Amino acid sequence: MRVFVTGASGWIGSATVPHLVETGHEVVGLARSDASAERVRALGASVHRGGLDDVAGLRVAARDADAVVHLAFQHDFGDYAGAGRTERRVVEGFLDELAGSGRRLLVASGLAGAPGRVMTERDVSAFAGPDAPRGGSEGLALDAVGRDVASVALRFPPTVHGAGDHGFTAVLVQVARERGVAGYVGDGANRWPATHVADVGRAVALAVDKAPAGSVVHAVAEQGIPTRDIAEAIGRTLGLPTASIDPADAAEHFGWIGGFFGTDVAASSAVTRELLGWEPTGPTLLEDLAAGAYLG
Question: What is one Pfam family matched by this protein (predicted)?
Answer without folding.
Answer: Epimerase
